[in-house]
Amino acid sequence: MSKIYEKAPAKINLVLDVLRKREDGFHEVEMIMTMVDLADRLEMEELPRDQILLSSQAGFIPLDEKNLAFQAARLLKERYGVRRGVYIHLDKQIPVAAGLAGGSSDAAAALKGLNRLWNLGLPTEELEALGAELGSDVPFCIRGGTALARGRGEKLETVPRPPQCWVILAKPPINVSTADVYGKFRVGDVKEHPSIPQMLDALSRQSFQDVCASLGNVLENVTLHRYPEVRQIKDCMIKSGADGVLMSGSGPTVFGLVAKEAKVSRVYNALRGFCKEVYVARMLT
Ligand code: ATP
């Protein structure tokens, strides 16, 4: 019985801007996203019976049709008439409901892995289109690398990767719902929008300093105000010497970019003083 593995890396937003609320309820966004090497790992194995089975060592995620990896498998089966069963084990390393697109990345890894396991031969563009049916961040998680995302996040353009650096991620012990944050967001409240052209320019010049200076996320307006612990983490990262600091997605995870290895332990130790979930990662190149 064949078995395959697929990694599902976490994403961070270097820029997240919201332009307006659309008629369909979604928000029109402009984001620059990139992957880090903090990753879930999916093990996918053929089952003798035609069913989708899920397991995980993480006790707090759904293992039924609410799980995005389950939905990915079901979508492929329905769309391409696959009558084979699969057992998916999710080794969760990415914190849940953290603004790091853990669920979306699992869905992307399931689509890519099952495309191989079931010999469907679907090209990446088709997988991305299927991914968009599962969630706005899924197409980017399929493509990987670094991308400018428009629309509700599904219209992608690959852009240069950021220069290699350390990425320190800290998640306070609170659950933040993405829908809730977008629900409370008002474009009119934003005093200063981050500049996509400025970040693209910094990326094309591979200037670490300018990448740090161009970080921006308008959703901080909502999350930082509602959850003082997120602001506290941001302040701590800045004070302890991170070169660039930003909240990822709708939060609550905050990431700090650090160029010099010698500085990593200083930032890490400062955070560990009051935050249990701290991760040290590298940009995925
Ligand atoms: P995003 O930034 O894309 O909104 P997130 O990183 O904030 O996502 P996720 O970790 O994807 O959040 O989890 C959001 C919710 O999705 C969880 O509360 C969980 O119930 C559900 N979920 C569904 N599938 C998964 C999965 N494979 N891993 C984690 N959570 C999942």
UniProtKB/TrEMBL annotation:
GO terms for molecular function: 4-(cytidine 5'-diphospho)-2-C-methyl-D-erythritol kinase activity. Residues 67-145 form the GHMP kinase N-terminal domain. It is an enzyme of class 2 (transferase). It comes from the Bacteria. Its EC number is 2.7.1.148. The keyword Kinase applies. The active site is at 11, 137. Keywords: ATP-binding, Isoprene biosynthesis, Kinase, Nucleotide-binding, Transferase. ATP binds at residues 95-105. Pathway: Isoprenoid biosynthesis; isopentenyl diphosphate biosynthesis via DXP pathway; isopentenyl diphosphate from 1-deoxy-D-xylulose 5-phosphate: step 3/6. It catalyses: 4-CDP-2-C-methyl-D-erythritol + ATP = 4-CDP-2-C-methyl-D-erythritol 2-phosphate + ADP + H(+). Residues 199-276 form the GHMP kinase C-terminal domain. Pfam families: GHMP_kinases_C, GHMP_kinases_N. The keyword Nucleotide-binding applies. Catalyzes the phosphorylation of the position 2 hydroxy group of 4-diphosphocytidyl-2C-methyl-D-erythritol. PANTHER family: 4-DIPHOSPHOCYTIDYL-2-C-METHYL-D-ERYTHRITOL KINASE, CHLOROPLASTIC (PTHR43527). Belongs to the GHMP kinase family. IspE subfamily. This is 4-diphosphocytidyl-2-C-methyl-D-erythritol kinase. It comes from Cohnella hongkongensis. The gene is ispE.
